[in-house]
Amino acid sequence: MYLASWSGGKDSCFACYQVIKSGQRVVGLLNCISKEHQRVSFHGIDPALIQAQSRLIDIPLLQKGTTAEYYEREFKEGVRELSNGQIITGMVFGDIYLDEHLRWVEGVCNDLGIKALEPLWAKNTSDLLTDFISAGFRAVVISGQASCIDREWLGRPLDDQFVQYLKTRPDVDPCGEKGEYHTLVVSGPLFKGRIEITESEVVEKEGHRFLDIKEFVVRQY
């Protein structure tokens, strides 16, 4: 049995999907929330959107409050809380090629006595983006560095048009692995429904653009 580090974006979702598709069980999702901002860490979205994802994919969720100063300690606490006495083999992460990320997750998992599972590691990022879309997942762009992603793409889906746009931006990794952009998955093979964003606006702050999602609806199948 595995837990999954879950941001709500395409990479953590696709990694989780690959593990489930291989026949493994994912029994919990760990999502980190900034105590300072009360938003999903790094992605900056409303925690309620992650709760909606958890309900739609029917995997229990723990949202753990974290701080920059004690992030690693708080992350480990979250893993222990989410395990809830179950024997856990390892934890799934959606990293692709950043060595410092791999070293961090392997160190954390080693301390916890579990395995770090990285199903997307060392894969071609152009292929991964295409495979994610081809698998039937739908995600929207929810943030981006102003120097990397034009404002018009905030709130728009990851689709063939977005793929073609990224080809005009060789400075941007196709999966945004260096933080060029972030996404929110709203439907797909793991989901028993979809999230519809009904009201939002683009906010600019310190060289970044964010999609402030004000209202959304959950449609169950």
What brief labels describe this structure?
alpha/beta; 6 helices; 2 domains; Rossmann fold; five-stranded parallel β-sheet; globular; putative n-type atp pyrophosphatase, domain 2; 221 residues
Quick recap:
This protein is an alpha/beta fold and 221 residues long. It is built from six helices and nine strands; from the N terminus they run βαβαβαβαβαβαβββ. It has helices at residues 10-21, 47-57, 71-83, 99-112, 125-134, 160-167, and strands at 2-5, 26-34, 61-66, 90-92, 115-117, 138-145, 181-187, 193-205, 208-220.
Could you please describe the fold and organization of this structure?
The protein has helices at 10-21, 47-57, 71-83, 99-112, 125-134, 160-167; strands at 2-5, 26-34, 61-66, 90-92, 115-117, 138-145, 181-187, 193-205, 208-220. It is of the alpha/beta class. The chain folds into 2 domains: 2-117, Rossmann fold (3-Layer(aba) Sandwich); 125-220, putative n-type atp pyrophosphatase, domain 2 (Alpha-Beta Complex). Strand 1, helix 1 (10-21) and strand 2 form a beta-alpha-beta unit. The protein is globular, with a radius of gyration of 16 Å. The mean pLDDT is 95.
